[in-house]
Amino acid sequence: MFQLLGAASVSGYIITALFLLVAIGRLVRDALHKFTARLPKRSALKHYTMAIMSLVFFCLLVVRMCFIATVIIDCAIQGDKVEISGGSGSQF
Fold first, then answer.
1. d(C-alpha 56, C-alpha 49), whole Å
2. From residue 80, how far is each of 13, 25, 74 by CA, in Å?
3. Distance, CA of 8 to CA of 17 (rounded, Å)
4. Do residues 36 and 49 lie in contact, with contact meaning Cβ atoms separated by under 8 Å?
5. Contact 22, 64 (CB under 8 A)
């Protein structure tokens, strides 16, 4: 029981940290957007800065989504007895 509570609190801390990272990422993205607004329209620095920031922000969102999905699936599997039907030969 204590292990389950410990795992739940650890996953809660991780989810909270991921939400904070995404919030900080949004602040950085907005700051970079204001910085690049001063650059010329066809500036390579502006293009690459926004492309890299968009990629990093997208990766943060994907990591957060995957972790939340993993926690939900893990809780569902631990809550029920999982039975695998069929023998090992029926998998192929």
1. 11
2. 24, 37, 10
3. 14
4. yes
5. yes
Tokens standing for residue 73: 């699936």
Tell how far CA 64 is from the center of its chain: 2
What is the structure's pLDDT at 42? 87
pLDDT at residue 1 in the model: 46
Label residues 7-18 b or e (16+ Cβ within 10 Å = b).
Answer: eeeebeeeeeeb
Q: What is d(CA 63, CA 15) in angstroms, rounded to the nearest whole number?
A: 10
Cα(35)–Cα(49) distance, integer angstroms: 10
If DSSP states are collapsed to H, E and C, what string results for 30-57?
A: HHHHHHHHCCCCCCHHHHHHHHHHHHHH
- pLDDT tens over the chain, length 92 residues: 445 555 567 777 888 888 888 899 889 889 988 988 888 888 898 889 888 988 988 988 898 888 888 877 777 776 656 555 555 555 54
- Residue 14, token pair as written in the block: 């991780």
